[in-house]
Amino acid sequence: MGVIVIGLNHKSAPLEIREKLAFDASETAVALRRLKDLVPQGEFVLLSTCNRVELYCAGERISRQVTGRLVRFLSDFHDVEPGCFESLLYFHENEDAVRHLLLVTAGLDSMVVGEAQILGQVKDSYKLACAARSTGKVLNRLFHMAFFTAKRIHTTTSIATGRVSVARVAVELAAQLFAELSQAKVVVVGAGETGELVVQHLLKAGCTDITVVNRSHERGAKLAERFHVALGAWEDLSRHIAGACIVISSAATQKYLYDKNTFEKSVDRPGARPLLIVDVGVPRNFEPSINEIENIYLYSIDELREVADQNLKAREKDIAQGLDLVYESAADFMEWFRARDVGPLIGRMKKEFKQIGRNELERFFVGPREEASCRLVLETMVNRVVNKLLHCVIKNVDTVAKETGPAEAARLVDTILQQTREISCESGNGEETAA
């Protein structure tokens, strides 16, 4: 039995690769079903965010050997040649995979350390896997351990104090590049979780002229009403961008909202005044070449790293405390993971012990003793003896598990099992001569 994770993130792969391999919710559901068909004995959870695409797997035959099949799966699903991304993938197995998930879920592996969004994204990914019935005993326990550990880190360290996010970093970047942020006309494209956080941080920064534009008018209207900002129509997006000083965009889209050609044609900017665009969408909302247009300053999510690094330095103590908790939880999970087979082995050992007792009773009650009136009393006595012996054995197995680990305990039980099977066969085949 093994647990692995294969993936790429903001540290291992550039945005242009991550966006090619990104999954939306509907694609995730389809992918999980296909993975179960590909490896029926496996358990799978697929995590896809703006900064990472990761596939978590567990199963009897899940090991490094299956990574080739998983790489081909990603390649075929997105129609991307393996050579474009295979060298950028990372692979973690067993305890390393467990630690990685715990770090991700707690926000300790994020570009913006301590961000709040990732926990919700991991939970959403797990819910999709549960709905697709692609999880099982191992990943269920692992992901619940990850949620518990993230909560523990956020409540026992100060990493959650002044919690940051990609949205906040985007606003901080705008504030650094635009001297009069409070007087700027800002357009927020997208009314999802990131868009909502952007609006909140803009308001905290003192912005008074904010317009939300969203493909779904209803969702955009709810956000605008909640925070008392303006609402723009999706069909008027180009006009709103043309009149803005700053655009922060996080729309969910599989292709650019604007390439360079359509931007130049549809966005009429009198006097070509400066326009800052912070694109935090994955896949990206704006073609990178738009940055070549005069007085257009386009930043993607990967270019927020410098601002995020400032946050990292301020949280070094929190990160150290969080890492200690991650390693502790990972060790607890691996203790369970290695011991998960001991229980079934002990169950089989109990059956073998009881079978030996039954065999010996059958050997005794033959011939003149076959109808002896003491049979019930003897059966009760033999069962009691067997149970006491079992209690003694199991107590010693528990001691071995505590002192040398569950793997050694499992080996001990397996050895006892082999011996009891031999004894059971001997006692079952023997014959007792009646006195």
What is the compact description of this entry?
54% of the residues lie in helices and 12% in strands.
Fold and architecture overview:
- With 435 residues, the protein is an alpha/beta fold.
- It has 16 helices and ten strands.
- The strands form two sheets. Strands 7-6-5-8-9-10 form a six-stranded parallel β-sheet.
- The longest helix is centred in the last third of the chain and has 30 residues, at 375-404.
- It is elongated.
- The protein starts with a strand and ends in a 6-residue tail after the last helix.
- Mean pLDDT is 88; it is low at 431-435.
What is the element string, with H for helices and E for strands? EHHEEHEHHHHEHEHEHEHEEHHHHH
Are there runs of 5+ residues with pLDDT below 50, and where? 431-435
Radius of gyration over all CA atoms, rounded: 30 Å
> Overall 3D geometry?
elongated
Oligomer: single chain
User: How is the main sheet built?
Assistant: 6 strands, parallel
Please report the total strand number as a whole number: 10
Number of helices: 16
Q: How does the helix and strand content classify structurally?
A: alpha/beta
Strand content: 5-15%
Record the SSE blueprint.
Elements: E1 2-9, H1 15-18, H2 25-38, E2 43-48, E3 52-59, H3 67-78, E4 90-93, H4 95-105, H5 117-131, H6 137-156, H7 166-177, E5 185-189, H8 193-204, E6 209-213, H9 217-227, E7 230-232, H10 237-242, E8 246-249, H11 260-266, E9 275-279, E10 296-300, H12 305-313, H13 316-339, H14 342-364, H15 375-404, H16 406-429
Parallel strand pairs: 5-6, 5-8, 6-7, 8-9, 9-10
Antiparallel strand pairs: 1-3, 1-4, 2-3
Helix pairs in contact: 2-5, 4-6, 4-13, 6-13, 7-8, 13-16, 14-15, 14-16, 15-16
